[in-house]
Amino acid sequence: MTSPLREARSRETAIPVHLTEPSGAREWDRRHVLDLDDFSVSEIEQVLETADAMKEVLARDVPRAPALRGTTIVTLFYEASTRTRASFELAGKVLGADVINLTASGSSVEKGESLIDTVRTLRAIGAHVLIMRHPMSGAPYLAASHGDARVVNAGDGWHAHPTQGLLDLYTLRNHIGSLAGKRVVIVGDVTHSRVARSDIWGLSKLGAEVVVCGPPTLLPAELGRDHEDGLPLVTVETDFDKAVQGADAVMTLRLQQERMTGGLLPSLREYSRLYQVNEARMEKARPGAPVLHPGPINEGVEISAAVAHGARSLIEEQVTNGVAVRMALLYLMRGLK
Amino acid sequence: MSERVLMTAEDVRRAIVRIAHEIVESHRGSHDLVLIGMRTRGVPLARRLAAAIEQIEGGALPVGSLDIGLYRDDLSVRGTAVQIAPSEMPTDIKGKRVVLVDDVLFTGRSVRAAMEAILDLGRPRRIQLAVLVDRGHRELPIRPDYVGKNVPTARGDDVRVHLSETDGSDEVAILPELEQTSKQEELS
């Protein structure tokens, strides 16, 4: 059995990278949102611009607009989630779509229905858009290749979480402006993080200098190699105190407790001593550099309480922006037959 | 290609001044008035109208810009999404007298969408409609309250409004259907 990571990698290398493209064309013809690796810069820009209009809708007394009236969205979650599922559901409802939520437990999946059959069934009952989370890397690609529903990847294994990537870009840009040339540090368990993978794609496409930091056991071996395999160029730094030096922003990853049992970390205490995002370390970053975290946070482990709830923290804003960015994507995908 | 000029820059200026007077007359002043321009060319028109009204009445008039992208009724007909931008309201429109401003009134569908968008933003006391050109061919029961110029057209004619803010100079021209070579790109 191939590892999810290897699957993820081979998929990433299979799709060509568009690093430069004029952002003049305004047509949207993307059927599926599976990862950011095949997004053009102009597509990313279009999503971020549209999200601005969605924020205006969300700020109203009654946040409603009828753009997705008659559209049926199904969220199909094979893995636990609160914020992502709620965020998609709200995004659909604000724009007037019908949203049906399905989880693996309590559905035909428990009776052994295959993924492909589930996707076909959902399409047959009239689902236009399928929002899917799955523990296996690549599962949304399989769903996208069967039937004609549009598929949005809401997280697959260790591979990708493109809407989180887009909302991180949106949130960052609202705070530090254009990302071109900005030093953005991603710190934590990069190996097991689909958020990190999508963030790296998005950030490097918008021209940021990406620094990846964490204990060597939690950094994928392929990172930091040359550009030749088509992967984005990142700097790898295992010393967080060095990595954070002059950073324009820090993106913290969640440390999953189960990593300890796998022998990848000696102790939580040691991890937080070396890699915790705290005020003392953030002093070395650019003044006022913001801190992001995809949540849910382990306070006192990967991030200190003072930073998580302090002035630098964009964590709550990420959640709000997540709804706007997902509204933008659903709106843009809506016109497609 | 023979474009026929319907309004010169001077005609556009006079029409705006006249409409400004009509609005002031109809509302007995500019109290509680909000001008809302429909993107794209309705916005500079609304600003000019506001400036003209301020000349007559004094004081400052709030001007908003409205994006109707989320309210169009042709969303499922069109192949791709229309780029949208945030609507910007300078003030709470609840209880206000709103004058919606657009460049060309044609089928009335954009105006319907605009009214729905405005009602989602608040409950104005009244909504009126001011347009620079009314070219006819309504598909909905909508009529303008203030018109710069009524122009009889054939359905397929192309009426183009140029404004200095968006296009470098002021002019309204018509390109008859029979003489169009690439009309598809202008249908929006």
Task: Describe the structure in brief.
The complex is a heterodimer of chains A (337) and B (188). With 337 residues, chain A is an alpha/beta fold.
Low-confidence stretches of chain A: 1-25
Strand order of the largest sheet of chain A: 7-6-5-8-9
| SSE order of chain A, one letter for each helix or strand | HHEHEHEHEHEHEEHEHHHEHH
What percent of residues of chain B adopt helix (DSSP H or I)?
A: 25-40%
On the 0-100 scale, what is the average pLDDT of chain A?
Answer: 88
Shape of chain A: globular
Can you offer a commentary on this structure?
- By secondary structure, chain A is α/β, with parallel strands linked by helices.
- Chain A has 2 domains: 4-161 and 319-334, Aspartate/ornithine carbamoyltransferase (Rossmann fold, 3-Layer(aba) Sandwich), CATH 3.40.50; 162-315, 3-Layer(aba) Sandwich (Rossmann fold), CATH 3.40.50.1370.
- Chain A has 13 helices and 9 strands.
- In chain A, helix 2 (41-58) crosses helix 13, helix 6 packs across helix 7 and helix 6 (162-176) crosses helix 13 (315-334).
- The radius of gyration of chain A is 19 Å and the shape is globular.
- The two termini of chain A are 37 Å apart.
- With 188 residues, chain B is of the alpha/beta class.
- Chain B is built from 4 helices and 8 strands.
- Chain B has a 5-stranded parallel β-sheet. A 3-stranded antiparallel β-sheet of chain B has the order 1-8-7.
- Chain B starts with a strand and ends in a 13-residue tail after the last strand.
- The interface between A and B is medium-sized, with 28 and 21 residues.
